[in-house]
Every structure is written in structure tokens, then in C-alpha cells.
Amino acid sequence: MSNDSKRTVLSPEDTGLDRRKFLAIAGTIGAPVVAGCVGEGDDDDDDIGAGDTLYTSLEASVDNLDPAYTSLAVTFAVTSQIVESLFRFDHELGIVEELGTDIELSDDGTTWTVELREGVEFQPPHQREFVADDVVTNFERRLDPDAGTVW
Question: 44-66 burial, b if ≥16 CB within 10 A, otherwise e?
């Protein structure tokens, strides 16, 4: 596994995943690692601010806010509003870029290269740039059999 600040390269030896499994995990793996990440957004909305409250109705209780430790649809519905993945699927199962802007499989099928969106930062108190090490750390956490993650 190798990476620089904006590029992550993974091989099957690193992950043990085929293409289908890799894309399934890539769609969910970015979420807990990038919780609180924000890009350059529009700050002109004066109607929303600190201390505002959102009330909603859910069909079940949320068990936690880390998608790595749940398989509940209601939890994914909530966490998808506050975290981003590398990629996600749209309603027609097309791949949509989120924190990943491009994904390539090497000609020999042994290495995945993921380009990361620039200008993404974690929110305070961990305010810093989102980098490839964050993705690598999350893959390692997800693949660690002792971590107890669902995926």
C-alpha cells in the first residue's frame, strides 16, 4: 500500500478484495474516516447556525454514528447526512464521486488508484486537510479482524 497526500494506491495483497467487494467498501469506507469533512461551501445561508435544531422522525433507533459498526439502514440514512464516502451509488447504481474524484484499476488488475478531492478539511477540533493517509487508515481499520467492524 502506498500513498502521497492526494493519491492512494491499493493492491489485492493489501486488501484481499476483488473489484466488486472493493467498490462496495469504497462506497461506505470513507464515511467514518471523513466524519466532519467539509469542502469549500456557500457560507451565505444566514438562516442556519450553531445551536439550531433539526427534528426528524425515523422508523427505528440509530445504534451509533460510525457506519463501520452497523448494518442498520436507519443508521446509514442518518450518517450519510453528516459524513461522506469516497464514492456512492445513485438510484440507477451509477458511481457518484464524493471524496474520490477518480478510480483506476491497473492493466494487470492488481492495483487500485484513487484520486482524492482537493480542498476538503475536517471540522474543528480536528481542522486539517483530508489526505490519503486518512483513507489508508480507514481501510486498515475495516480489514482488521480484531476491530469488530461489520463490513
Answer: eeeeeeeeeeeeeeeeeeeeeee
Q: Residues 120, 123, 128, 130: is their CA dihedral positive or negative? A: negative
CB–CB of 105/89 below 8 Å?
A: no
The predicted-structure confidence for 56-92, as pLDDT tens digits, reads as follows: 788 888 888 888 888 888 888 888 888 888 998 899 9
- What is the C-alpha separation between 108 and 58, in angstroms, rounded? 46
Q: How far apart are the first and last CA of the chain?
A: 20
DSSP helix/strand/coil, 9: strand
